[in-house]
Inverse folding.
């Protein structure tokens, strides 16, 4: 070790005398040796322990992201399907309710028509009966009017002429 | 006072360790700061390992770093080059850490040495050559001979392609080294000039404001360069790795 001290001085002088230290070839072997050693060890550590783990981590994340995106796409497709079926159910329900109300209305209208018909029939029957009764009572009334007129005419003739006329005679003359 | 702007690049040996093929291997300030940058990188990324599904700030930084490098590889070379991710990741963060550590006072910029940048460049180009031959066999050498040319053109094209291929490690190494050296030399020169003016005294103390503002500007620029050069080194490595997978061009 002690022998190194003068050596260091020699290098210092070589540099001071104007020669570039880079072209002092006696130092090249040491530099190359240490470079290969350090570079080799560094390469070994980086390539065995560090880089595979960084690369793996990045690959894991990329996988995870693409997985998540796939899953999101799946969920969206599912949601779209659900929405489609929901719309379909809604449309079906609407059509069904429309049918039901149509049917109900038809039934109700039918009932109403039937009842009206029945009521009209009843009314007609009663009208016929009533007409018959009216005609009868009118005929009766006319009959009684004739009787009264004949009596009145007999009374008038008796008072005028002092003779009694039979009702049949008066009636016959009234009719002419 | 240090008046030599090159002094900062000096390798100071702490201990001589052993000898290989006549070369003494010793522990120096350069080795120390390489180890520091290695520990910082491992420490930082160990802290980011939270493994949570929803990342916190630290974990995000780790994951952003990972994705930054993986995007870079995917954009320039393609998905098939992903097995080089650890190498490019290590390369980028080692250079980035070394460059940024070098911006601290008293720290040593390991990437300002041609020995380091050249070794990194040779490493890169060796991986391209080895992986290319491993994958394509000898037909990989077709990258030097683009198909569909008249025979005579190959006499011209093949040497050009070979030279441009050889130039790749050289330019990789020199680009990083020169950027680091130039930036640190500029910083040092401005700082020395400011210190020199202050030492003169009198009116010159007021004039020292100019090199101080200059040194601040250059420091900001150097932080940019530190990150940019790490990026350039990494992306050029990706582009060169293209030759492994796309032989017919």
């Amino acid at each position: 070790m002690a022998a190194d001290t003068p050596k260091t001085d020699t290098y210092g002088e070589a540099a001071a005398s104007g020669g570039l230290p880079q072209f002092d070839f006696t130092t090249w072997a040491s530099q190359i040796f240490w470079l290969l050693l350090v570079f080799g060890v560094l390469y070994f550590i980086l390539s065995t322990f560090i880089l595979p783990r960084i690369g793996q981590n990045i690959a894991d994340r990329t996988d995870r992201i693409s997985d998540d995106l796939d899953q999101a796409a799946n969920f969206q497709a599912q949601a779209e399907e659900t929405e489609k079926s929901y719309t379909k159910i809604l449309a079906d329900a609407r059509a069904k309710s429309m049918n039901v109300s149509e049917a109900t209305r038809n039934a109700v209208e039918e009932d109403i028509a039937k009842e009206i018909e029945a009521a009209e029939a009843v009314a007609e029957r009663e009208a016929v009966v009533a007409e018959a009764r009216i005609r009868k009572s009118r005929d009766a009334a006319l009959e009684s009017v004739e009787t009264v007129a004949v009596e009145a005419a007999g009374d008038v003739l008796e008072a005028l002429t002092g003779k009694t006329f039979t009702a049949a005679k008066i009636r016959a003359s009234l009719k002419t | 006072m240090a008046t030599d702007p090159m002094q900062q690049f000096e390798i100071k040996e702490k201990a001589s360790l052993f000898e290989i093929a006549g070369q003494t291997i010793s522990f120096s300030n350069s080795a120390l700061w390489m180890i520091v940058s290695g520990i910082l990188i491992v420490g930082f990324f160990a802290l980011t390992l939270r493994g949570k599904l929803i990342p916190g700030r630290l974990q995000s930084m780790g994951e952003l770093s990972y994705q930054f490098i993986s995007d870079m590889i995917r954009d320039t070379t393609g998905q098939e080059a992903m097995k080089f991710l650890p190498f490019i990741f290590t390369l980028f963060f080692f250079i980035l850490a070394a460059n940024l550590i070098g911006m601290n006072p008293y720290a040593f910029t390991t990437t300002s040495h041609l020995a380091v940048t050249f070794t990194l460049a040779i490493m890169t180009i060796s991986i391209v050559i080895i992986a290319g031959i491993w994958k394509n066999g000898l037909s990989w050498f077709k990258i030097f001979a683009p198909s569909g040319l008249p025979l005579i053109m190959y006499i011209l094209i093949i040497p050009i392609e070979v030279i441009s291929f050889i130039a790749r490690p050289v330019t990789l190494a020199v680009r990083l080294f020169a950027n680091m050296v130039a930036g640190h030399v500029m910083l040092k020169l401005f700082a020395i000039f400011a210190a020199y003016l202050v030492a003169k005294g009198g009116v010159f103390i007021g004039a020292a404001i100019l090199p101080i503002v200059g040194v601040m500007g250059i420091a900001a620029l150097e932080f940019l360069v530190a990150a940019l050069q790490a990026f350039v080194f990494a992306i050029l490595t990706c582009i060169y790795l293209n030759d492994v997978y796309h032989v017919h061009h």
Q: What stands out?
A: The interface with chain B takes residues 1, 3-4, 7-8, 11-12, 15-16, 18, 20-24, 26-36, 38-39, 41-43, 45-47, 50-51, 53-55, 57-58, 60-61, 64 of chain A (CB under 8 Å). Residues 45-137 of chain A form one domain. The CA atoms of residues 20 and 90 of chain A lie 91 Å apart. Chain A is about 90% helix and 0% strand.
